[in-house]
Amino acid sequence: MGDERHRVPGPPHRPPPRRLGRKNDWAATNKAHSWVALGAHVATYHLIMGLLLLLPVLRDGWPAGNAQIVLTVSAATHALIDRRRPVRALMRAAGSPGFATVEWA
Q1: What is the C-alpha separation between 96 and 28, in angstroms, rounded?
Q2: Are the beta carbons of 34 and 11 closer than 8 angstroms?
Q3: Closest by Cα among 23, 19, 14, 12 to 45
Q4: Cα 78–chain centre separation
Q5: Which tens digit of pLDDT belongs to each residue from 58-91?
């Protein structure tokens, strides 16, 4: 019952109205079960990360290609980990089946 008060009402495949904070809460809460929520969560996170990476690219002359590689690898691994099924399978294979079934949110 405690988990239900933290979930945003409504089906996980439909985002709530466009209020930035609420949408981010919805995406973070539903990312393990909804591809739309996962995409919104990873895109928001990496948009901010990409803006921050502009600092070394513009100020220090860091190659923009390197920034793109960093963002791509980060987004791919972030999405894989947040989807949780691959991580749970790896944890079961590594001998941590109890920890693999913990629901974080």
Answers
A1: 25
A2: no
A3: 23
A4: 6
A5: 999 999 999 999 999 999 998 888 887 777 788 7
